[in-house]
Prior knowledge:
The complex is a heterodimer of chains A (155) and B (159). With 155 residues, chain A is α+β, with helices and mostly antiparallel strands. Chain A has one domain (28-149). Chain A has helices at residues 28-32, 37-55, 70-82, 146-149, and strands at residues 91-94, 100-106, 109-116, 119-124, 132-133, 137-138. In chain A, strand 1 (91-94) and strand 2 (100-106) form a beta hairpin. Chain A is globular, with a radius of gyration of 20 Å. The termini of chain A are far apart. Chain B is α+β, with helices and mostly antiparallel strands and 159 residues long. Chain B is 28% helix and 25% strand. Chain B has a six-stranded antiparallel sheet with strand order 4-5-2-1-3-6. Chain B has one domain. Chain B contains four helices and six strands, in the order βαβαβαββαβ. The interface between A and B is large, with 41 and 41 residues.
Amino acid sequence: MTTAPRLDGNAGQNLSFWPIRPQPRATASSAASIYEPEIERVRTKLLAGIRHLLKYPITWSDREPVPVDSLSVETAFAFIRQLPADRAFPKIAPDGEGGVMLVWQNQGSEALVTIDRTMLFLVERPGEADSYHFAPLRFDGEIIPSIILERLPRR
Amino acid sequence: MIPREIIGNDELLSRQVFHPPMFPDGVLLLVRALFEFPGGQCESLVWHRYAAGLDGIHRMGCERQTELRQRQLSAGRNADKTYVGAATARAVDITQYRNPNGHGFSLCHEPAEGIHHVHVCYDSVPGSQPMTRGDKGEIKLKLAEIFHALSRHVCPDEV
Lengths: 155, 159
């Protein structure tokens, strides 16, 4: 038996006049677009630092550094670009397996996001006895998952 | 063959630290992670008991710097690998830490690589779930925190 395709009446319809539902709160991407020169200056430096990791991998040991994966770098880059202006910027480090670690060590509010290609691994209060690991989330490069954004320290 | 020894809780172990290549605004932007465990491999430490303390560890660090720079020159690169000092921790502080998922570190004497040589390796409580990248990131940062105090050292030009 075949099932006829379900039609919702919108096929071929011009939807340009369709009312847009107002957003109840600012999304990460729109919040990031608020321009504050000092914040954007730091953001630019951080983005340059992430790019630098790709071109010049670093290590603190006497061995050759492990290259950082280009997709992980692109994801980290997009994450920082989309980080709202009211959130603190993290420090960065290669994770030794091709990923990038974003580390917030603000007093009393700490978080770690490890980026492995397009996956984000959030740990709240890393290193503490009550640290909490969230299930990995995929980042589309556009909107930081709200479960992560809500747990990042504010500026 | 030199037998392996058990490393007592109060033994001191150092991580020799080499300065990363030039990094823009490194102090502001970089977390000093110190350990990488590439591909899950163990990382090297120096056992104070067999290294004549920090002076001996710095001397070995400078010798290693010389070797690495010669290797860089041979490969046609800038000879910029720089030993900057050693970060030290007590054995028990390394081995007693476990994150909430049961992951942490173990220590193993590796005298075949030099009597002073110790490996620090990933170690999990039996029955733990496999380590995620989040677990690895968390425990690496914790290890760097345990080794927080860096004894700085500047090598002489020629060793």
